[in-house]
Amino acid sequence: MNIDVDRLVLDDKNPRLPEHLHGASQAEILRWLFEESVLEELAISFLDHGYFAHEPLFAVKSGETWTVIEGNRRLAALMVLLQNEDAVEAGAVFPFADQVTPNQIARLQQLPVIEIESPEEIHDFLGFRHIGGIKEWPPEAKARWIESEIKRRTESGGDGNVFRSIARAVGTNAQSIRGPYLALRIVRHALDEFDDQSSVHFVRRERFGVLVRATNSPDLRAFIAPEHPGGTLSTLDELTEYVRSVDSHRLARVFQDMTPRPDRKTALLSDSRDVTTYAMALEHPVASRVLEDYGDLALAKQILDREDLPNRLRKIERTIRSILDEIQRDLEDLPDGSSEAVEGLRSATDSLVAQIEHRSSQ
Hints:
Shape: elongated
Strand content: 5-15%
Helix content: 55-70%
Structural class: alpha/beta
Number of helices: 19
Distance between the termini: 81 Å
Number of strands: 5
Radius of gyration: 24 Å
Order of helices and strands: EEHHEEHHHEHHHHHHHHHHHHHH
Largest sheet: 5 strands, mixed
């Protein structure tokens, strides 16, 4: 069915929204979407081609209005184009607004809508579309959706491995579900434990994807929870116990290293590609002091590169054992290409053993 745009409202519980906007007014939500969600490209497409009927909104009816559960960015773009009262209140105007013709506006007054009984009706569809699909949400939005899905499934008595069951439902692997959820739990732990929460808010807002990558690192997980036995945290209970054991002082250092300081334009750790080096440096006494005293990751890497071979091999061994543990726990969720990667590792290992034996015999 087609519904007038002025009878459609934005979902104030949309996982894409930051948590402080949950329950906010339509104007506040629209202002955030306008500033953060790159609506111009959508608006230009609507002006040029109209609204595509094969992309209906999914909405729940409440009285005389429909709350849009899926399609909030599209609705927001149209609200700004049509300059409804919420767009006016939000001060949201596209720079090309004076070039829009009445005919273009006229064909955007109604949108195709599929009415649903409740958000749970399309919960798995949203996960498939935005967690493992082609229209992925930002990392923190993914994590919040995963958190809500874990709560929904555990309260309804789901199976023993909730990460694996969610992964199957949305077409991805268990690690892609476990990683964002662990990062979000660590953020919540930091908010509970830290007096100064400025670095936590920055990381959550600007570097959540880097945090997800960091908490996937066995070395970094070992650093922030030195008393925890380790492992792959395959179950919800294991992950919960791990978060409880996190050392708040060490975690605070990691958050501070991910936040720009007055004496540096960029944070010490701002790129997910540097996580491995950073995590190894934290566990190395000299490299760790270099990070703390000079904030120089490149210099710390030079120190690590000069580290003797046995120590480097032991670190590689720990990583491989961690991977083996994960494979044994999640046999049904191995990503495509795992066999080829393992074969490459086997070949490299054989070459390493052969070289060491050759040198030992000389």
